[in-house]
Design a protein that fits this description.
Blueprint lengths: L4 E7 L28 E6 L13 E3 L19 E6 L2 E5 L5 E4 L6 E4 L30 E8 L5 E5 L5 H8 L17 E5 L2 E5 L26 E7 L5 H15 L8 E6 L6 H13 L3 E4 L5 H14 L21 E2 L1
Parallel strand pairs: 1-3, 2-4, 9-11, 9-12, 12-13, 13-14
Antiparallel strand pairs: 1-8, 2-7, 4-15, 5-6, 5-8, 10-11
The chain binds guanosine-5'-triphosphate (GTP) and magnesium ion (MG).
């Protein structure tokens, strides 16, 4: 099961306490400062698949700074904790609504700050007080409740009604091995595959009313929000392809109107099942509404290589901005590093 959202409580380390002590022989103050508590950073990673590591681990705590010691020994600052999450994760601070998008694998984002170490009594020595009998406590580390949401970063998104042939296409165009079935809702969670150097996302089919929760709903549409191109798959044998098209568009728009602004190509699928005249007729109808139309069948090698060539050209850097970090789907490991 793809765990694509989770609520976490993260607590940075407290600062270590300052020490109150006096030198055994000389008598002057010799309490050292406490070390700072550990901060918590989040870092996007290509090596983490989903958020399943947090399924049973809902709170994370960085270490406390070490307290100061006698002889002016300073306590060590606690190590920072780095939490690796899949590239494309969106983190929302529940209390403030502040949003962080982890879209690169190089920049750790500081989310909670460790407490400051307290000063030892040596620091409080002054002309008027040669023997201060107090030291500071370390301050509390920050604590935040965070909502983490995974958004797959794919270049191309496959959309359409259930059974339109989306997963079959993903399997033919990439090395992904999604489940394929002659029944609706075969795909229950998003699949992603590499095509050339680009990634293709296959999401569960949409049906009328998806935006109000029918079928599998629109919960997976967030995964295609970042795509550069939508490949709208329509079964060419559909009795009313325009109606089918409109249903899916309506659901997209109701979920997020911005999805309607994305470049979209109509892909008529299963052309092996229809007469050529029928394919031409449906293609013409979509061209009339100013849509680019491609056709394919998983049983026609040539149609697939034409499609590949088209997509490769479409997602060239000149035409579409290519993300610097392309997410790889396989061999993910999850990691939390302290
Ligand atoms: N004849 C023919 N059958 C196809 C073609 N593409 C897919 N199919 C069949 O159509 C059925 C549905 O295919 P899927 O790829 O699972 O469809 P999907 O759009 O991913 O469906 P959901 O996951 O339910 O949304 C399967 O029985 C496939 O074998 C094609 O080009 N020609
Ligand atoms: Mg499918």
């Amino acid at each position: 099961m793809l765990i694509d959202n989770v609520t976490l409580i993260v607590k940075a380390g407290n600062g270590g306490n300052g020490k109150m002590s006096f030198h055994r022989n000389r008598g002057g103050p010799d309490g050292g400062n406490g070390g700072n508590g550990g901060n918590i950073y989040f870092q996007g990673s290509n090596n983490v698949n989903d958020l399943h590591v947090f399924r049973f681990k809902k709170s994370l705590k960085a270490e406390t700074g070490i307290s100061g010691g006698k002889n002016n020994i300073f306590g060590k600052t606690a190590p920072d904790m780095i939490i690796y999450v899949p590239l494309g994760t969106r983190i929302t601070e529940v209390d403030t609504g502040r949003i962080y998008e982890l879209t690169d694998v190089k920049t750790p984002v500081l989310l909670v700050i460790g407490g400051k170490g307290g000063r030892g009594n040596t620091e409080f020595k002054s002309a008027t007080n040669q023997a201060p009998r107090y030291a500071e406590s370390g301050t509390e580390g920050q604590q935040k409740t965070l909502f983490l949401e995974l958004r797959l970063i794919a270049d191309i998104g496959l959309i359409g009604l259930p059974n339109a042939g989306k997963s079959s296409l993903l399997a033919m165009l990439t090395h992904a091995t999604p489940k394929i079935g002659a029944y609706p809702f075969t795909t229950l969670e998003p699949n992603i595959g590499m095509f050339d150097t680009y990634t293709l996302a296959d999401i569960p089919g949409l049906i009328e009313g998806a935006s109000s929760g029918k079928g599998l709903g629109v919960q997976f549409l967030k995964h295609i929000e970042k795509t550069k191109l939508l490949l709208h798959c329509i079964d060419v044998t559909d009795p009313d392809p325009k109606k089918t098209y409109d249903i899916v568009r309506k659901e997209l728009g109701q979920h997020n109107p911005e999805l309607l602004e994305k470049p979209e190509i109509i892909l008529l699928t299963k052309t092996d099942l229809a007469e050529e005249a029928q394919v031409t007729k449906v293609a013409k109808m979509f061209k009339k509404i100013k849509k680019e139309v491609l056709t394919c069948s998983v049983y026609k090698e040539e149609s697939l290589s034409d499609l590949k060539t088209y997509l490769a050209k479409y997602v060239t850097p000149n035409k579409v901005e290519v993300p610097t970090e392309t997410r790889k789907i396989r061999d993910f490991k999850s990691g939390i590093k302290g």
